[in-house]
Amino acid sequence: MIEIKKMTQAHILGVLAVEEATFPIPWTRADFEREVNENKMAIYFVAMEGEKVIGYAGMWHVVTEGHITNVAVAEEYRGRGVGAQLMEALIGAAEEKEMIGMTLEVRIGNAPAQKLYHKYGFRPEGFRKNYYPDTHEDAVIMWKYFPNYEHYDEVKD
Questions:
Q1: Does residue 153 register a pLDDT over 50?
Q2: pTM (2 decimals)?
């Protein structure tokens, strides 16, 4: 059974293992320690199977918006709804904090991630050229607006 929990210091080594296996330029242990222990804007969740971290997701609550920083699932658990559960946790936290919307950047070539984000109402709003330093790949900027956003009718599909 998979359980979604708030990320704590105790989860960092497991998160780091998922991070290093997922991203070509991974965040460091110090990065995650800062997020958990110092960054007042940070909201992070872990997906656990028993005592094992199998995925994680995080965002920063910046004024009235959520900026998703990372979403990662261990390769052997992909396609099992773990990413969806993590996205639901982030969206729930954003709604609880009455954010007007959420944003993220995703590699232009990462179709599985874009499909997941589309499923939860994120839509492309722009691009960042050469955003990823390892490949100089462009990023798609995606946004999800909540109904309490004052211009909601202008941006929804």
A1: no
A2: 0.90
Domain residue limits, the chain:
2-155
User: Are the C-beta atoms of residues 45 and 56 closer than 8 Å to each other?
Assistant: yes
- CATH superfamily, with its number, for domain 2-155: Gcn5-related N-acetyltransferase (GNAT) (3.40.630.30)
pLDDT band at 109 (very low <50, low <70, confident <90, very high): very high
Instruction: Tell me how many degrees the CA angle 2-30-78 measures, rounded to the nearest 5.
Output: 30
Sheet holding 65-73, edge to edge: 2-6, 42-49, 52-62, 65-73, 101-107, 139-145, 123-128
> What's 27's DSSP letter?
P
Q: Is the dihedral angle over the CA atoms 10, 17, 26, 93 positive or is it negative?
A: negative
Distance (Å, whole) CA 42 – CA 127: 24
Token reading at 113 = 């991630």
Secondary element (H or E) of residue 57: strand 52-62
Q: Is the dihedral of CA 137, 138, 139, 140 positive or negative?
A: negative
Question: Catalytic site residues?
Answer: 105, 117
